[in-house]
Amino acid sequence: MKNPVRKSNTRGEDSGSLLSDEQNEWLMRQLTRERKRRCRIVLTGGPGGGKTTAADLFRREIGDKVVVVPESATLLFSGGFPRSTQPLAAAAAQQAIYHVQRQLEDVQSFLYPDRILLCDRGTVDGAAYCPEPPEEFFASLNTTFEAELARYDGVIFFESAAVGGLTIEGGNPIRNESLEQAIEVDRRLRELWIHHPRFILVRHDASFFKKIALGLAELDNMVNEHSKDRAKSQKSAPRKKR
Question: Which domain holds residue 193?
Fold first, then answer.
């Protein structure tokens, strides 16, 4: 079984930073400052990576500690939302997916205020599917790349099976990428999410069971670490005087 790759070990694989030193420092401050807030963990990766399966299994395993935020693109496209490769139409669709993603996270937060949000993709993903450069995509939404990264406490990236030449056919009828397209999407997503300070890469494996087991172990570690950090922060916070 292959070991997961954490961000500290992936710097050399990055084709170039999208964040300046100042933006990286701001991102780190935000993540540190927001330790007491609700935890959001993103499961992402190229098509056929196993993220949706991992989210469902983890929810079944630990029950009411987490709540899954479903993939907004699947919800929209399966409901009849237009899907096109025409550049302007594709960009508009990704903007719609972004807004639905944010609202889905808010809805689950309101319904389950004490649970960790397990997000099947995050608001950064749209930049990998959009034909325009990432900075233009985020600017069109009145946000920034670093602000969207800061929404999430951790990222577990399930590498697409296509990277290993394996089939990506599965249970999602909305998926329509070829192996070559899946590999390219995987690469673009990874180039974005790798900038998150808590990025973990779960590589493809000929054994889907082994890959999912490894991903679930990393997810369990991330959830437990956040729970401990949050409890420590709340314990050390000054009490209000009556």
Answer: 5-10+21-227
